[in-house]
Amino acid sequence: MNPFEPFLDAEDLTACVDAGETTAAFDARARPLACDFPLWLEPGQDFGELFLGARATPRSFRYGFVGDNVLGLLWRLPNGTEIQLGGRVVKNVTGFDFIRFLSASQGRFGVPKRLILRLRPVAEDGLDLRLLGSWPGLNALARIVRSSSWAHVLEICDLHAGPQSAEIHLRLRAKTTLLPPFQTQAKAWADACGLSLSVYDAPPQAQARPWARAQARLDDCLDLGQEWLGRYGGRVHAFLGQGILHLQNPASTQGAEQGLFELHERLGGQGGHCEHPSLAPDPAAPQARWEAELLKRLEDAA
Amino acid sequence: MPLSSAFLDACRGLLGPAHVLTSDAALTAYDNDALTQGRHRPGAVVLPGNAEELKQVLALARLEPEPYTLRGAGTGLSGGAVAVQGGLLIHLSRLKRILSIDPLNLVAEVEPGVVHAALNKALEAHGLFYAPDPSSGFASTLGGNVAENAGGIRCFKYGVTANYVLGLEVLTPAGDLVRLGGPAGGLGAAGGSNWKALFTGSEGMLGTILRIWLRLKPLPEATRTFLATYATVEQATSAIVDLVHHPLIPVAAELMDPNCVRLVELSPFKAGLDPESWALLAEINGPQAVVDAYAGEMEALLKRHSAGSLRATSDPAERLKLWKARKTAGGLPGQVSPDIMVGDAVIPRTRLAEVLADIYRESEAEGIPVINLFHAGDGNLHPNFMFDARVPGQADAVRRLGKRLLEKVIAVGGTLSGEHGIGSDKMEYLPLIFGPAELAAQAAVAETFNPLHQLNPGKLLPQRRFRRPRPGGVET
């Protein structure tokens, strides 16, 4: 059986898609079958770009990184050779884990031609809550949510912040009877943290192509977001379960690039990093040697 | 060629004589891991006591013209921690410090020899837990778990070890000492590629793990465990498919066949299971309100498939008893059979009944009893073929069974291993699933880091053999 022929198996909750299919187009096919691929940024983005560029998306709070949810890849190396990686099963340790390695690899090792996705069942109802207020209050809320039992079931826990205001978006998708107790819990959190609580009419959307990305320790996210906005303006969207910040539309890109370089160095000490076209991998690090050698060996072997 | 006396003396000077094992009596314990087939005795075993000693041992080992292999608790089931070409075995069980627990950032920093259960014990006081849950967790080490990308019972909801590795400090065979990620879980200042993903699950072939940063989770407020029994495999597996579709995503969905249930009920861990039935163990967790809201729905789902009986409990003691029965069941076939071969294939969940029927039919035809207990929600099969290698023909029959099972698995879109790894055990079957280009890609990774295959040879790919230099410079 060739698992890389396109399919949508709603019973097994797996699908093989072309890299050029948009997440919205796939959603339109999967939703009527009561399942979806939960990780996407903008509906018009295709799966190839999502896999190559993004580590996480809003619903990563529940479902993990993009690389955790891709089961197989038909991969085209830079020299045009195609190789099959992974397959259509939800656990797989047959050989080295190329899939997580190639996730967010920005095209350095080639591009996906097809992807096998792990799908999820869709819950019957949902509630999107907006908790708005001061940075210390939001920081306290983020800590409470992360260490709460609700962290096991929430789909989204994201920060959206601009120069004028900052808010945390919480989403629960579950059966309808669970939404009132969740709202009651969120109200208690809001009161404890001095925040206002409301239901979103239209929750904020993610950007597929932020100006830069940063990855930090979870508890540093809000402080970093506040600091960044204070210096460079624009907007910050942070996935608080993954410690990933999307830095969007800084007021002055020139100053922001220098600030990003400094932030990258700072985060590097904690095993974090920043991503932006101006930040090339360190050519003196062993990783640069590994990268060149692995790519050469892959192409030679193929 | 034995390890040189100069090398062993240097190790004794570094670690103390008690931590350099060379007698046959001491080495016997290292002939195999939990996979009993394929015994290979190392030339010596060393037990460094801390990261600095480990680095120095590795520096010495790289200069010795012998292979070296890393080992945690030896609970692996693919021969991954066995010195198949002899040489040095580096046992990491003394590197067992939990270096830090950071509740604000949900991170634990550990040495590779920390036992999985010891970490979870330490985390309890912080209201946290480490989610991956291999059945060997009472003994297996976190370094071994990372090397094999261990899974386990809770994978159904929480995923595998790779989902939780934020960072690794590794020392490669070429001597590169590198931090790949860290508590922030990113790439580190060097940027570039996500190398920690490639090292996780690399079966100890790419480098030595010195330090690990792991993502933690808060302990759930409420948990409810369900035990349903079914008369037929079709009923049990159709219940599994329904569980897979439940939007709450249960923590676990485990199946034990009647052969397994009977063994459990004869053991000290008996849990009052019906010995003629398939037993399905499932669990949900989260806030009390969520568990309460879904408990009735789960019971209805499990009953819908003609459950013969259904028990549901939130009582910690009763839950522990049920899970102990499931976890210890994995070791029971080995107590009643001289030899066992444990499969680890993964298939689409919708093909469970069909593939299980094949397993029973084939094993009956070969006269080899089989017990099935497995992570059904993930489609991860663990057939235990029970045999006696001393009986002529039985080992060959089991090999035939294993091969036919894997051929069937691949025919339905499955794979060779879900959590045990390839090791030396399934190496010969890789061409069933990989073509020449895919095999070459696997080799390219191994050779980038370990071109001489001095570190853990004889695993994953047949050509990964360490060639010992002969006097006069000719390799053998």
Describe the structure.
The complex is a heterodimer of chains A (about 300) and B (about 475). Helix content of chain A is about 30%, strand content about 25%. Chain A has 9 helices and 15 strands. With about 300 residues, chain A is an alpha+beta fold. In chain A, strand 4 and strand 5 (about 80-85) form a beta hairpin. In chain A, the strands form 3 sheets. Chain A has an 8-stranded antiparallel β-sheet with strand order 11-8-10-9-13-14-12-15. Among the domains of chain A are: about 5-120, Uridine Diphospho-n-acetylenolpyruvylglucosamine Reductase, domain 3 (2-Layer Sandwich), CATH 3.30.465; about 125-200, ACT domain (Alpha-Beta Plaits, 2-Layer Sandwich), CATH 3.30.70.260. Chain A has helices spanning about 25-30, 45-55, 60-65, 100, 135-145, 180-195, 220-230, 255-270, 285-300, and strands at about 5-10, 15-20, 35, 70-75, 80-85, 110-120, 120, 125-130, 155-160, 165-175, 195-200, 210-215, 235-240, 245-250, 275. The relative contact order of chain A is 0.13. Chain B contains 16 helices and 18 strands. The mean pLDDT of chain B is about 95. The longest helix of chain B has 18 residues, at about 395-410. In chain B, helix 1 packs antiparallel against helix 3, helix 8 (about 235-245) runs antiparallel to helix 13 (about 350-365) and helix 13 (about 350-365) runs antiparallel to helix 14. Chain B folds into 4 domains: about 5-90, 2-Layer Sandwich (Uridine Diphospho-n-acetylenolpyruvylglucosamine Reductase, domain 2), CATH 3.30.43.10; about 100-220, Uridine Diphospho-n-acetylenolpyruvylglucosamine Reductase, domain 3; about 220-330, Alpha-Beta Plaits (2-Layer Sandwich), CATH 3.30.70.2190; about 340-430, 2-Layer Sandwich (Alpha-Beta Plaits). In chain B, strands 15-12-14-13-17-18-16 form a 7-stranded antiparallel β-sheet, with helices on both faces. Chain B has a 5-stranded antiparallel β-sheet with strand order 5-6-10-8-9. Chain B starts with a helix and ends in a 27-residue tail after the last helix. Chain B is of the alpha+beta class.
